[in-house]
Design brief:
Protein name: Putative DNA packaging protein
Order of helices and strands: HHHH
Shape: globular
Number of helices: 4
Largest sheet: none
InterPro entries: Phage_gp6-like_head-tail (IPR021146), Phage_HK97_gp6-like (IPR006450)
Distance between the termini: 21 Å
Organism: uncultured Caudovirales phage
Number of domains: 1
Radius of gyration: 13 Å
Length: 92
């Protein structure tokens, strides 16, 4: 898993366990999104992958409306995903 539940909750500043199922689902979705956007071989332990997951999870957590205000994901996320895509297999 790209992030542990506690890591995501800390980033989102969520206390308690009422939202645990939702956040766990968002972690799984973020992991799949990163794999689909980059490559199946992406290193999910890479700090850029973890940052991308945090950005995605926060975006989805804060914008739960089915339609409306959400807009596009940030340019910084797109940049991170491109870097992950082209660094697959790079050991540095």
């Amino acid at each position: 898993m790209v992030l542990k539940l506690e890591e995501a909750k800390e980033y989102l500043r969520v206390d308690g366990n009422e939202e645990d199922m939702l956040i766990t689902s968002l972690i799984t979705a973020a992991e799949q999104y990163i794999k689909n956007s980059t490559s199946k071989d992406v290193n999910l332990n890479d700090e850029l992958a973890k940052l991308a997951a945090r950005i995605l999870i926060a975006h989805w957590y804060e914008n739960r409306e089915p339609v409306g205000k959400t807009g596009k994901l940030s340019f910084s996320l797109q940049s991170i995903l491109i870097q992950l895509q082209y660094s697959v297999g790079d050991s540095t």
